[in-house]
Amino acid sequence: MRRTDHAGHGRVRSGPPLPEPGLPVLPELAAVAAAAAGHSHAPPPGGDPALRAAASGYWERRGLPVEPEHVAAAPGAAPLLLAVAAALGGDVLLPRPCAAWWEPQVRLLGRSVYHVPTPAECGGVPDAYALLETVRRVRAEGGAPRLLVLSVADDPTATVPPPDAVHEAVEAAAGEGLHIVSDETWRDTLHRPHDTVLIGPAGMAPGRVTVVSDLAGAFLPPALPAAVARFPADGPGAALRARALDVLTALGATLAAPAAAAAAYALGEPDGITARLAAANRLHARLAAALHETAVGAGALARPPVAGRHVYADLGPLRAGLAARGVTDAQELEDHLQERLGLPAPGGHRFGDDIDALRVRLSTGPLLGPDPEERSGALGAPEPLESPHVARALARIGSALDDLRAEAQRWEPPR
User: Fold this and answer.
1) What is the dihedral of CA 295, 297, 303, 304, to 10 degrees?
2) d(Cα 315, Cα 308) in Å, to the nearest integer?
3) Strand, coil or helix: 72
4) How far apart are CA 346 and CA 186, in angstroms?
5) pTM of the predicted model, to two decimals?
6) CA 97, CA 4: separation in Å to the nearest integer?
7) Which of 214, 212, 218 is nearest to 29 (CA)?
C-alpha cells in the first residue's frame, strides 16, 4: 500500500476533462440558457428550488426517491466532492484507476489518498478484501479513513461493475464506518441499457451514500457546468449536507443562472432531451466499439466499453515498440500518442494508475472531427463509421498502434 502523488512527473495537477460528446448543443437547451442569462439574481448556494425539484424527480424515476431539501447543486461535480470531503474530514480511499478529477479535490484539503485495486472484471469499485486490508493498514499507521469514492459507470475504464462487486464493496465500507460518494456521472450513457444491470450503492446503504452526478456526462455541454448531489435523508445526512453547503458557500461555488436553468430543464427529461441522449449513446457506443476493436486488434489490452465516451487501453504488450521510440512510462506515452494522433490521450497516471504502466484513455468525441455539420451528420447516420473524418481518425489510430506492434515484434527475442 502506498499513497500516490505524481505531481513531480508531468502535468498531473491539470488533469484531463471529462470526455466530451463532440455534438452541437440542442437548440431548445440553448434557448433555455439564453432566456435565463437576463436574470439579475444568482441562484443560492446548493441550487434554487426548481433545480433541486428537477433533480429529485430525476432520481425518483431511477428508483431513488429523495426530497428536494436533501439535494444540492454546484457548478460541476468537483466542488461537490470537495465539499463532502471537507465536511467529513479524514483520509480518502479511491479505486485504482479512478476519475482524474477525484484525487485533486482531496489533495486541495491536504488529506491523504489511498488507492485500492479493483476486481479483475471491472473498474469503478474497489476489491472488497483489498479495501478491508487497506483500511486496516491505514489505521495501523495512524490514519483516519472516512470516505470511499466509487463509480458504478466508470471513467476511465468504461465498465459497469456487476451488482455483487458493488454490494461487497459497500458492505465492506459500511462495516468499517466509511461514508461513500457514488459518482454516477455516466449512469445514463449505457451502450446497451436493456442488457446492462446498473445498481448503485444508495439503495444498499441509504444512510451511508451520497450520490453525485456531473451533468456534463449525459445532459449538458461543458460550457454549462452543473452537477447535483443526493444526500442521505436521515439526521447525519442532513447534517452532512448542511456542512457541505457551508463549504460551497465559502468557495462561492454557486451555479450561474443559465446553467441552473439548463440543468433544471434537462433533468426534467423532456422528449427532446431523451431523444438526443438515446441517439448520442448509440453513436458513442458504435464509436467506442470500433475504437476498442482497433486497439485490441493491434495487440493492446482493454475491457469492452459498456458506458461513457471512452476506452481505457493497456499498451503493455507493445512496450518493446514504445521503448524503441523512447516511451517508457505513461506520461511519455501520453506525449507520444497526442503528437502522433493529434487527439487527447491522457496517460493512466492521471487516473491513479502506476506511472510505469503503459495505459491510456482514448475518447470517442474527437473522432467526430471539428466541423459541426459533420458531427450532426454522424449523430443521425445509419453507419457513423463511414463518415470520412471518423474513418480517417480510426485509421490513424490503427496505423500508429500497428507500427508499435511491428516494432515490438522486431525487438522480441527469437523463440
Assistant:
1) 100
2) 21
3) strand
4) 19
5) 0.94
6) 12
7) 218
The cell for 167 is 454490494
The residue count for the chain:
415
C-alpha 95/C-alpha 80 separation (Å) is: 19
How far is Cα 371 from Cα 286, in angstroms, rounded to an integer? 19
Q: How far apart are CA 26 and CA 269, in angstroms?
A: 13
What cell numbers appear for 183 in the block? Answer: 459518482
Q: Given the C-alpha cell 457546468, which residue does it identify?
A: 225
310, 401, 294: which is closest to 361 by C-alpha?
A: 310
- Up-side HSE of residue 66: CA atoms within 13 Å toward CB? 31
107 Rama class: left (phi>0) / alpha (psi -120 to 50) / beta: alpha
Cα dist from 74 to 48, 66, 227, 230, whole Å:
11, 18, 5, 12
Q: Burial of 246 by CB count in 10 Å (0-12 exposed, 13-18 middle, 19+ buried)?
A: middle
Q: All 3 cell numbers of residue 379?
A: 449523430
What kind and span of H or E run contains 228?
Answer: strand 227-230
| DSSP tag of 25 | P
Rounded to whole angstroms, the Cα distance separating 232 from 238 reads 7
Taking only the tens place, the pLDDT of each residue in 77-135 is 999 999 999 999 999 999 999 999 999 999 999 999 999 999 999 999 999 999 999 99
Question: Which residue reads 470516505 in cell numbers?
Answer: 147
The candidate with the shortest Cα–Cα distance to 200, out of 231, 228, 166, 232, is 166
CB atoms within 10 A of CB 400: 16
4, 95, 260, 306, 391 from 196: Cα distances, Å: 33, 21, 31, 8, 28
pLDDT digits (tens, 9 = 90+) for 130-142: 999 999 999 999 9
Scanning the structure block, which residue is given the C-alpha cell 478484501? 129
DSSP H/E element including 179? strand 179-183
